[in-house]
Amino acid sequence: xxxxxxxxxxxxxxxxxxxxxxxxxxxxxxxxxxxxxxxxxxxxxxxxxxxxxxxxxxxxxxxxxxxxxxxxxxxxxxxxxxxxxxxxxxxxxxx
Length: 95
Description:
Blueprint: H1 4-7, E1 8-11, H2 15-21, E2 25-30, H3 36-47, E3 51-59, E4 63-66, E5 69-72, E6 76-83
Antiparallel strand pairs: 1-2, 2-6, 3-6, 4-5
């Protein structure tokens, strides 16, 4: 990836991901072509934290129906990033 902001698309804020924040794990939607190393460097550079581990998952798009027409949402990639002790991402805190 050319730019770190191309790797990290947006944070995922759900009940499960907010519960993971208490364990110092943060969830992001990332570019489908991004590797774990690129995700680690992007999070460290954008949020100025120390990353210990990155777990990635390829998520399949769900089937959606609008009237008679059926289609699929796009496939996407999710990354769960574990931070070092004492590191926090302040933007996502308090959700």
